[in-house]
Amino acid sequence: MRNVSRPQIGRSARASVSVPKCAAPSACAHGAPRCSATIASLPQLQRNVGLYRGNASRGLTASSSAAFGSTVRSSPATRLIKRGSPYIHAAAYRRGNSLIVCAALAGVEGARDVTAMVHAEVQGEENLVVGQLENGFRYVILPNKLPPKRFEAHLEIHAGSVDELEYERGVAHFVEHVTFLGSKKRENLLGTGSRANAYTDFHHTVFHVHAPIVNNVTGQHMLPQVLEALEEIAFKPEFLDTRIEKERKAVIAEAQMMNTIEYRVDCQLLQYLHEENNLGCRFPIGMMDQVKAWEHERLKDFWQKWYFPANATLYVVGDLDRNIEETQELIQKVFGGLHQAREPPQEGQDPALSPVKSRHSIRPPVEHKHGYGPLAVDEGPAKISIFRHPLLQHFMLSIFCKLPIQPMTTMGHMKQMLMMRIILSVYQFRINTRYIQADPPFMAIEIDISDSGREGCAVSTLTITSQPSDWRGAVQVGVQEVRRMQRHGLTKGELDRYRTAILRDSAQLAEQANKIPSSLACGHSVMGHKDAHKSMVAVAETISMEDINALAASMLTFASDYGNEEAMLKEAESEERKDAFSYLGPTRATSLVAAIPAYIDETGASVTEGVSVGRGAAAMGAGGHIDAEGLDLEALEKEMAQLDEFDVPEGAIRFNISADEIAEALADPTFETEAPSDVELPENLMTQEEVEALVVERNPHYIPIEGDLSSFDPAAPAPPREETFSGVVQRRLSNGVRINYRQTDNEPNGVLFRAICNGGRADEKMGAGPDGFGAVVVGTRVLSESGAMGRWGRSQVEVFCVSNLINCALEADEENIMMDFHCTVSEGGMEAMFQLLHLFLDSPKWEDSAMDRGKQAFMSSTKSIGKSLERATSDRIMATMMGTTERKFREPTPEEIDALTMDGMKSAVMSLLHAGNMEVNIVGDFDPDELESLLLRYVGTVKPREKGRDTSQMMLEQLPIEFYDPPRDERHGVWHLQDSDERACAYMAGPAPARWGRFGENSPLKAIEGNIRPPIQFVPASASPEDRAVAIETRRSHPLYSSITLMLLMEIINSRLFTTVRDSLGLTYDVSFEVTMLDRVRSGWFSVHVTSHPDKIYEALNASVAVLRDIRFSPINRRELARAKTTLLTRHESDMKNNEYWLGLITHLQNPLVPLKTATCLRDLKSMYEASTVEDIYDAYNSLHFDNERLYTMVGTSGKQAPPRPEFTLSKVAEMMGDEEEMPSAAPQAAAATATAAPPQAQAAASAGAPGANGQLDPMAMLTAIMAAQQAMKLKNAMDQMKQQQQQQQGGSSPEQK
């Protein structure tokens, strides 16, 4: 039951062919753009647009590698793709937290036999248009109607960090910052419902905009405005000195923010993987000593060299407001006037006669050492590199093999890709089977084979993760299973099972015209789903056992036979074995990297509370960067040599494993590799006879959704369906289960299902004990780890899920236990899902081995907190804020986890996991009659709770959080994490209102009597005070009032934080404000997270506090509110085409403990946003408290030594400002002036800053005034500098003469 995905199952299901990680950074929540340099797998549109929620297109992928190579045939006149061009479809689709990847070729007519078919080329997506202007500017257009009324435009500049010279390391990313954030037309996109961002990678820089068709402010079409903004960003930047200096600070802050241990490990892996070329050292963030020193001309030089029309490609995808020809005309109008760029002229040469510039034919422009073919002279096994660090907790070994990318252009290529998908899925299933055995020696074993357009190669990876003491056993399992498959191949059952699963998934994707991620990368081509599925069916029939096992023998040798490379090559050349390998022959490892903790205890376990990492796990994700200055090999070796400078934990010993020991373990010839046995595949988990018997025994039936279970006569006719607002149908079963469902066509043939029970951390007992703190969340994980039910074991359940395309996950959070399922409607998929749910609820198995794994997983997670700067700082402020009485929002301690017993956890979980405490929510493309029949037969027959054992509603009702009130000095904490690199982050937090109920009310909720009135949308200026009062009361009595106003306030505060702390003051790259709102708990909390350098973290924290407090004096205006409304409403309208979003909307609609969430909320969601006023936002603001008496702060720093704590931290502000004589004379006037301009609510709040009875000013007002004065002075200096520059540029005259 633990994150079972399809066709990849269970733990570590990462086996894939071409599974790119979505690397595009997300825009800030407040709509202010945040650009970034990324070293993630592949960019969003250029690789797989469409893998993230709210995407505006069926993904158009276009990498630089060969996007316009020989596989794209175009006519000279329009450069349009012809129907006869070769195409391959590589489709990826995200369902919940799972990424489903499928690939297919177009149908090929006239293929009379297998040989002809595998050599046939494919037919492409007829709506795809590829064009080129006379100046060399290229474009790609792909119309798509879903999501409706939105589109995306991405402008790719084919220049990235690998194009930098030695003295330019980081300039590509720096230029991206300056051009993007310096654009006025980009700024004009704010408030239109658009989201804009930018990122830099090894091989390119991308600027992208996600926008509605129509400007929400002006009513004009957005496509021209978006294209004009992109044209200005890339080709007409101003390079103002003030902008350059702002972004210099931002880049430095960004490097500090992302320089985590996860990042450093990922960079280590890349460094050794690409040791032979610049990909191993040209990280996009660059070298900070160079970034700090560059003159402004250095940026302009790089821009002039690389930013020219022939080196750019535009991608436009989505629900376009015009036809193809009109879109082409618009592109010509906006970009056609750009002049061709020419190479610098030779000495004495006429510049007009110098050659026209063009982009590199190969992207990225690097050469690779591949792991196949004959060995070079004296070539031995790849060396093993070891990276030790005190912050690492686990042993992690990564085995890499680089291969050339095979362009997908024929049916034969497709066949190979499909076989590879099957091989890797089967391997992962076998690893899962080893994992569920008692006391497995590994934590995760993952295999991945992916094309990487950003790196220009394919990379095969085997990653093995374990506790330090178990590393030999983990290596044995990983290598043993690779050898088993390399030597013996797959079973017939495995081939048939996974081939069928992938074809079924392809059939579902074929119905989803809005989900077509495709690839122009690396010579691949593009096609649609329906033709792709037809071709996939044809090519799948040609796969034989000999074909797939030969491919496994070749592709897996890199991990199965380390140290035995020469013998494997000779075996492949022998007469009797030459047909046992595919066309590549045996592959071999090209690099191996072990990342290990520096210290362990006497038992061999890690003594540090570190983190687990892996290539792409965190550091290579969207929007993150690391200072490459500290990542060259020489510096890394020096850092490792200095590990002894760290404080060695008491009782710790150095973890000294050598490369030779790892090599010996990998090459151990004694690993047994017997042929595998197949797992029994159950056709059904329940027979029809068993189901019918349950129906007769338990007599399931529908009852009215209101009233007691006993008040309805079972013999009476079933009540009719009750459809509410927004098409939601509500039902109730006789065993007490409440049901909400809604039909959508967002995902054809797909269904999302959630069963949710009240109860989570908030309902656990405090203290250690058999059923003490942690019993619910750890017990839920134990039940998930078991995955066994009825008469079936976990392996059989997983096979059943694979065959029926069921993806499921079970987890507990602060307030709930949730079971989420995804399945297909066709071919019995929905009934299979209901069988799984019934057995899980009616007869789950609690296994000792699952308890060991579940407790170990939580133990590892808890230990990892202490060595992650962000997590530990967050945990510390939660501890300060909640004290010892409210532990339920924190992780259980190792002692509490260890005290839990099987009986105690089972009792805690099963007391909540029953029909009377359950709500079921379904969203998807189903038939209502079929759904209600299945609900009746499988959910209605779940046995009800025994009488006298019902979970009391009073037991689950939650009172407000009891926030701890420590002395002021304890409220504002500081801690230090010993590390080799200097970083800092800070949290500020405090109490906040609950999601439901009026501000200030925190008693248990009661249902509203009578109908809920919708908000009054317009109140004329001539309205009487009574009418205005009615409008206000109607809004503020609405159940959505608190959550809507707090979300709007979040948008406004985040915008101000970005503008002030990041953009104006340059103190941070990342600062964010968030309010945590819970459903049953009657209060929440707010928090601000800011990152910076240790030298600036206190200034950044104080600036963030000042922004929050300044809202009392600098009034929120209608423009700010309108922009926040537009952002949230645009996001809402886009998400309405997402089933997962709908599932969240309907969850709790019948929960008696969340009585204010009703179907009326769905009706009024949009109108409540639209009706909100500035006064409402101040009402929400006044429910939060930012004074020193109620504010909590925590500053975390890292480095070899703790930086000195400043004389005045936030907790000392009142003391610093207690002497009136030391106050700046302008501060009282500034505070008074701003307060006067504020609305009545702000003025009332501002009065708190006026002199009190003792004649002293409130330190909050003083701090706000000082920060405002600092900002004003910086702004004045910047303006003076700009004026001087303008005067100097006007020539001749001095500033005085001007």
What report would you give on this structure?
This protein has 1298 residues and is of the alpha+beta class. The chain is built from 41 helices and 28 strands. Strands 1-7-8-6-9-5-4 form a seven-stranded mixed beta sheet, with helices on one face. A seven-stranded mixed beta sheet has the order 17-18-19-23-20-22-21, sandwiched between helices. The chain has a five-stranded mixed beta sheet with strand order 10-14-11-13-12, sandwiched between helices. A hairpin with a 2-residue loop joins strand 2 (88-95) and strand 3. Helix 3 (171-181) packs across helix 9, helix 11 packs across helix 15 and helix 21 packs across helix 27. The longest helix is centred in the last third of the chain and has 31 residues, at 1259-1289. It is globular, with a radius of gyration of 31 Å. Residues 1-112, 514-519, 609-633, 639-644, 948-954, 1211-1264 and 1292-1298 have low confidence and may be disordered.
Which terms would index this structure?
alpha+beta, seven-stranded mixed β-sheet, 41 helices, disordered C terminus, 37% helix, 1298 residues, 28 strands
Quote the distance from N terminus to C terminus.
76 Å
Helix vs. strand class:
alpha+beta
| Biggest sheet overview | 7 strands, mixed
Computed over alpha carbons, the radius of gyration is: 31 Å
- Note the overall shape: globular
* Low-pLDDT regions: 1-112, 514-519, 609-633, 639-644, 948-954, 1211-1264, 1292-1298
Give the amount of beta strand, in percent: 5-15%
Helical percentage: 25-40%
Strand order of the largest sheet: 1-7-8-6-9-5-4
Number of strands: 28
Give average pLDDT, whole number: 79
Give the count of helical stretches: 41
